[in-house]
Amino acid sequence: MSRGAAGAESRLVTITIRTASVDDHGRLMHAEDATAQACLAFVRLERELECRGLALAALRRLTVLSPAPAPDADAAEPLATGRSRPTTAPGDIVDLIRERLTPEGAHVPVDVLPAERLAQPGLLVALRAEVVSPPSTPSTTHEGTPMSASTLDVAALRDVSGLLLPGDAGYDEASTPWNLAFPLHPTAVAVPHSIDEVITAVTAAAELGLRVAPQSTGHLSSTLAGREDDTLLLRLHELTGVTVDPVARTARMLGGTLWRDVVAAAAPHGLTALHGSAGDVAVAGYVLGGGLSFYGRRHGLACSSVRAFEVVTADGALVRATADEHPDLFWALRGGGFGFGAVVAVELDLLPYADVYAGMLLWDLARGAEVLRAWAEWTSRAPESATTSIRFMRFPPIPDLPPFLSGRSLVVIDGAVLESDERAAELLAPLRALGPEMDTFGRMPAAGLLGVHMDPPAPTPGVSDHAMLTALPPEAIDALIAVAGPGADTPLMVAELRHAGGALDASTDAALPHLCGQYALFALSAVPVPDLLAPGEQVTKAVVDALRPWAAATDFPNFAERQVAASALYDEVTSARLTAIRDRYDPTRMWLAAHAV
């Protein structure tokens, strides 16, 4: 292979597309007819590929998602949901799909995966496709005319007060994301300090034909890298501030505010929030992607706690979206909020916890298989009050790390148990019986929960992969141990499972109403130098591929740090509704989103 060909191959990315038998408005077609549904889902897949300028030969894997039949059930017996059972077996559908793929030269694996939940009653078949695609498509003006950097009026950019251009003092610092493995090189950067300055920047970008990428910290910069030509990066990290109403138990924070500042402001009132595991993540991006907290199994996704969003839309208007005002936008922003505007303020409910029973248990990785099996069994019985994770972790010998981490390979269980001290100790007893070398579980101020997961305290280069898992049977445990456990020869830094279920599985009126699956799998590889990016992508993908047989129908937006289609994150009905809402609020597709709707 020539050097040019090799370079082109390295720039390819894998995206996931999910289709089903619905029309353009999300309405189910061919209810109860599995064959017809498979055919229409395949036609929609072809159309999606065509819109991306791709052929069926771009497919790398195709999965047929179908509800699992009850064991030993009579074929004519109704399902518990009231649906009749499909008259066509999944194997027949696979044969039908292969007949369509073969003439197009698409010789790809076609799998069948029992899906825990499809979009709606009567939907018997959906398709999930892994597709190899270039990382970006040409930028366009609002009229759809192809545009390149050479067509931009640089003098016009210079005339806009506050914009930073390449070469300007402060440009490099402002455009550097939290994930240092994916540097961004936008056409211009704006760093507003007020909502009025956000409106000015968005209006100027629209007049200049630039796309706009709102960003607070840049944790998801991996989804934007390579797509930021002709783009204004709207860095909101200076737009911060928190106001707490202790009587109403709510907080309003400006769009770039970090969770550590919200937690600090709420703590004096004996309150906290459905924050994530790291304090340096911004509230807005976290709730727009759903928000998974160590309070989650008791209280659900963080996006369900949002009362209001204040959003600058593509036309420069400031809109307040609540359940009563702009309710469609409010619905979309709660977990599906990529590409609808720049969120400049969020108002959400707080939790009445001044302190919490939380911490971690730590063993040498040599105990990894034993501990993982015990944790999996423990989570199958754990109450909703307990939200925990388990990680296989490999640390290089870095002096900045504490001695119990530096140069070591470990297995760690951490999280929170919302119970009295006595009840929490009773629940944790089976795990403590394994004799951890470190046990920090105990009563702590609620703000201390931000430090339990030991996320990196500063911007860090890394690459990751992710899937939601419907279950964690012994075969899945063995698969994870084989690729990431004690005996695995891997440069992987972290392989993590977070326990979901409980309130995280309870539907709310939001674009992301719940998590699809019982465990969130996350694999991370450090990328200290650019040459390790490709190997890191390979090793993290290998972990997810090993657990693919137990993958849920959709992934979790906050953990999807590789660019995927919206259909990989939301069911077909939700994707169609999100698209319709974006058509209303961003018809020219000005916003550059982490995952495009």
TrEMBL record:
<dbReference type="InterPro" id="IPR006094">
    <property type="entry name" value="Oxid_FAD_bind_N"/>
</dbReference>
<comment type="similarity">
    <text>Belongs to the oxygen-dependent FAD-linked oxidoreductase family.</text>
</comment>
<dbReference type="InterPro" id="IPR016169">
    <property type="entry name" value="FAD-bd_PCMH_sub2"/>
</dbReference>
<keyword id="KW-0274">FAD</keyword>
<feature type="domain" description="FAD-binding PCMH-type">
    <location>
        <begin position="182"/>
        <end position="353"/>
    </location>
</feature>
<keyword id="KW-0560">Oxidoreductase</keyword>
<keyword id="KW-0285">Flavoprotein</keyword>
<dbReference type="Pfam" id="PF01565">
    <property type="entry name" value="FAD_binding_4"/>
</dbReference>
<dbReference type="InterPro" id="IPR016167">
    <property type="entry name" value="FAD-bd_PCMH_sub1"/>
</dbReference>
<dbReference type="InterPro" id="IPR016166">
    <property type="entry name" value="FAD-bd_PCMH"/>
</dbReference>
<dbReference type="GO" id="GO:0071949">
    <property type="term" value="F:FAD binding"/>
</dbReference>
<dbReference type="InterPro" id="IPR050416">
    <property type="entry name" value="FAD-linked_Oxidoreductase"/>
</dbReference>
<feature type="compositionally biased region" description="Low complexity">
    <location>
        <begin position="71"/>
        <end position="80"/>
    </location>
</feature>
<feature type="region of interest" description="Disordered">
    <location>
        <begin position="68"/>
        <end position="90"/>
    </location>
</feature>
<dbReference type="InterPro" id="IPR036318">
    <property type="entry name" value="FAD-bd_PCMH-like_sf"/>
</dbReference>
<dbReference type="GO" id="GO:0016491">
    <property type="term" value="F:oxidoreductase activity"/>
</dbReference>
<dbReference type="InterPro" id="IPR006093">
    <property type="entry name" value="Oxy_OxRdtase_FAD_BS"/>
</dbReference>
<protein>
    <submittedName>
        <fullName>FAD/FMN-containing dehydrogenase</fullName>
    </submittedName>
</protein>
